[in-house]
Write a structure and sequence with these properties.
Blueprint lengths: L1 E7 L3 E3 L15 E8 L3 H8 L1 H11 L1 E8 L2 H31 L8 H18 L2 E5 L2 E7 L1 H18 L9
Parallel strand pairs: 2-4
Antiparallel strand pairs: 1-6, 3-4, 5-6
Keywords: Membrane, Transmembrane, Transmembrane helix
Amino acid sequence: MAAVVIGRVGTDVVVPGEVCVKTGVRTREFVVLRGSTTPPWVHVLLIVTIVGWLWASAMAARRYRVEVPFVHRHWDRWQRIRRAALLLGLVGVILACWASVAGVPHSAAFLGLTVGAVVLGVGNSLVNTVGVTQRGDLLLLTRVDPDAVGAIRAGMTAARRVSHPDVEAGSA
């Protein structure tokens, strides 16, 4: 999977092209990603202090709204597995608490469900969706299909030419 610059941090971005960012197939379906991102240097503070990291994360966070072409079938699969992982983690914690209060031997074994849920959730995010991160002042879309990267770059180049019609194509 590849990464591609899609715009500036703190702005609303519509990713050009009609190629699904995850599968590389043509689509007219779009999904809106909302969230916040922090500069990479903030994560270094986690080594030194958790409070400093929390404070710096809150102060340096920048919001984003990105509209990306994404096949709804694949987006729905990610959502479904994410909900299952959350439910599995919650059930694991509840069963571990119940078992420890009830005096069931090896009650901590139920936390294995929670660990499994974390693994399922992380794996699901890596496989079934894209990431949004910050590099300097640029917004970067990560874990993107290589075919989609080409379509996005071509669409951004065409958009740049349309927004600057007086600039020659060779110098843009």
